[in-house]
Amino acid sequence: MDQAGLRRGNLALLVRTLREHGALSRAQLAVRSGLSKATVSSLVTDLELRGLVHFAGISAGGQGRPGQLVDLRPTSVCGVGLDVHVGHVGVAVADLSGEPLLRRRVACDVPGIGPERAIDQLAELARTAIAEVRDVVGPPVGVTVSVPGLVDRDSGTVTFAPRLRWRDVAVADGLAARTGLPLDRIAVDNDANLGAEAELAVLSGDPEHRITDLVYLTGDFGIGGGVIAGGRLIRGSSGFAGEIGHMAMDPLGPYCSCGRRGCWETQVGLGALLHACADPDDPVRDPTLDLDQRMRIVRARAEQHDRRTLDALHQIGTALGLGVSILVNLLNPAVVVLGGYFAALPEWLVEPIRNEVVANVLAPGAGGARVVGSQLGFTAATTGGALAALRRVLDDPTVVPTGQADDEEAPA
Ligand SMILES: [Zn+2]
After folding, report:
1. What's the 118 CA to ligand 1 centre distance in angstroms?
2. Left if phi > 0, otherwise alpha if psi is -120 to 50, otherwise beta: which for 355?
3. pTM (predicted TM-score)
4. In the predicted model, what is the mean pLDDT of the chain?
């Protein structure tokens, strides 16, 4: 590795160390990072010039001389996550520490308006969000767009998203042209992969119970899967892994958006639930209503023991359990996270899933797999997108130019 590459790696090491441990003195940073004190001092000065760290008081106690504490400056930069769904587009902005600053969703018939107008909407959403947080946080280091489908990450192109009816859509190019953001700051990824990373970040908040094996289900009209095994996201040889919604569960079943029959998502997708629990003129089937609102109606009916709703949830839970059993046999995850609409209804879904898993998984006690509702619900993909965008700084702090420290607020 050349000198510049080595320095970038060391800067990244310090940023990650501070993110993990919070404020540290230079001496403590040297111990934790294994770098010399002189190197740490020089690197801290560099990070300070980029505005990524600030001084946060004096270290108390411990051995040696008290030292100035260095800490990350969360408001130095932000990451932006954008989200394209069948029924809405969304945005989330997070600061350098990963704290969400803004989340928004706008109802939008994405398959109906076509990719060009959908990308117009995404660009508008991004512009407005970035302008709104401008007073509280620095500029965006990146934008990551979440899409429910197959993505070619190298070119930022959606290869195929059947639910959106998109094929070979150059999302990154389109967004760069509309927003003026540099193309190398725009990424496109699969919604389940981004959701899985966001859920992992939430569940790993407690370092005592660090999770390395997780399956995340998107729970939307389509069902995507994000698989983290041994601490790493499984992408497969071409980047298309995790299309568990198209596991062939019933060769004679109903037709799927992909053109095949009996895919898992025809049994457990949001369309299957809505069809089973309500007639076509029922408000829960009104696409102009926000999904959260429709799920609140379903919840209320289940709480009132409405027979049709409970039967529908039991049917979905059982079909979910069969597919989850396959995944648990295959992957032995510590946790299966129910995302999207599933997260609004865990009280009625987890038990039938659990029953199927116990009945169908070879490992005793289902190999310890827990089934839990997501804490992020429909915001997992945008949250994961914002975190993925921030990873650009965590991997290479030099993407933030020097000279951003001047606008630092006065110490309190
Ligand atoms: Zn299918």
Report:
1. 23
2. alpha
3. 0.90
4. 92
